[in-house]
Every structure is written in C-alpha cells, then in structure tokens.
Amino acid sequence: MDFKEIVMRRRSHRKFLADEVPSSDVRLLLRAALMSPTSKNRRSWQFVVIDDKATLHRLSESKDAGAQFVKDAPLAIVVAGEREENDCWVEDCSIAAVSMQYQAEELGLGTCWVQLRGRQLADGTPTEDVVRSILGLPGNVGVLCVVAVGYPADERKPQNEERLKWDRVHHNKWSPVNEETKG
C-alpha cells in the first residue's frame, strides 16, 4: 500500500477484535512515533504502552464521554510530553500520534485517537490528572491523548475524494472561494 492509499484508508475504529497486537507491530508503531519530527529535534514526548486489561478499563473511564471503547481495545498508547522542556510538546506529540496511526493502517491495524488534554470529568477533575494518576506520570508531563489500537472489528469505507473540502484551501492569501476558483 502506498502512502496515498494509506491516507485515504485511515479511518477511526472504535470496535476491535480480541486478538493481541504482535510485539513486532507494537515496535513498528513506536518506531514511527520515535522517528516523527519534533520542534528543534527535542523529542520530549513520552509513550506509555498499555495492554493490561484492568488499566485499559481504567483509562476508558478517565473522561465522561468518548473513551469507553478503550476498555475493549487490546492495546492503547498514551502520548504525553514534557511541558517544561518544550513549548511545542502538543504539536510534537500530535505528529507522533498521527505517525503511529498511519503506521498502524499500513500494518492492517485500526486506531482511534482519544483526546485527553483539555478534557475533564463532570466534577471538574482534569482528565490529564486522572490518567497521570492511573499511570504514575510525573506532574511535569502533559497528557495529550490515548491511541487505541487493534484489529478492526468493523469495516469503514475509505475517505471519499469527492467530499474533500477544497474550498478550505487558499493560495497566497485568504480569499473567498467561488465557482470560478474551485478546482
């Protein structure tokens, strides 16, 4: 599969088969993350690989909505960054997480990004604090997301080229798009 096809086929999956992800594939996912570009080559991200069912279940409850499916994933990777070391930790971690997702697609694995940074429980407790507590992360580490990984139990259609929002692309300056400038 070439990169153009990987980009078209990558979709979020929230239902996974129970099959374990081979350690060789986990290593390739992490390799993709560790090779991702970072601001000033600081590489200040941290990755926590979780395959323990009890921990996956606790992570699925770290926010009120949007993480429940993590408990059924055979694997999750928490993506975090050292906030004080790098003011671009969010961007660097985002690039690493997406790099893992594209690598997973190439391996036939499904993924779904679960946003943690900036989210909170109904009582106001920041989700980052909950995850930090579950995993024993130090306070200087910001938690961006968890990427659920596994063999997809559902089938998703590839992206539809016809639905791309080319009107959101501007050339040289911001300009309203009309029928004459589309294409």
H and E string: HHEHEHEHE
Shape: globular
Main beta-sheet annotation: 4 strands, antiparallel
Q: Give the spatial strand order of the biggest sheet.
A: 1-2-4-3
Helix-and-strand structural type: alpha+beta
Uncertain runs are: none
- Summed over residues and divided by their number, the pLDDT gives a mean of 93
Strand share of the residues?
A: 15-25%
Number of helices: 5
Rg result: 18 Å
Q: Tell how many strands the DSSP assignment holds.
A: 4
Q: Percent of residues in helical segments?
A: 25-40%
**Distance between the first and last residues' Cα:** 27 Å
Multimer state: single chain
Would you kindly provide a brief summary of this structure?
By secondary structure, the chain is α+β, with helices and mostly antiparallel strands. It has helices at residues 3-9, 23-34, 53-60, 89-106, 127-135, and strands at 45-50, 75-82, 110-115, 141-150.
Task: Give an overview in words.
The protein has helices spanning 3-9, 23-34, 53-60, 89-106, 127-135; strands spanning 45-50, 75-82, 110-115, 141-150. The mean pLDDT is 93. It is built from five helices and four strands; from the N terminus they run H-H-E-H-E-H-E-H-E. Helix 2 runs antiparallel to helix 4 (89-106). With 183 residues, the protein is an alpha+beta fold. Strands 1-2-4-3 form a four-stranded antiparallel sheet, with helices on both faces.
List the helices and strands and how they pair.
Blueprint lengths: L2 H7 L13 H12 L10 E6 L2 H8 L14 E8 L6 H18 L3 E6 L11 H9 L5 E10 L33
Antiparallel strand pairs: 1-2, 2-4, 3-4
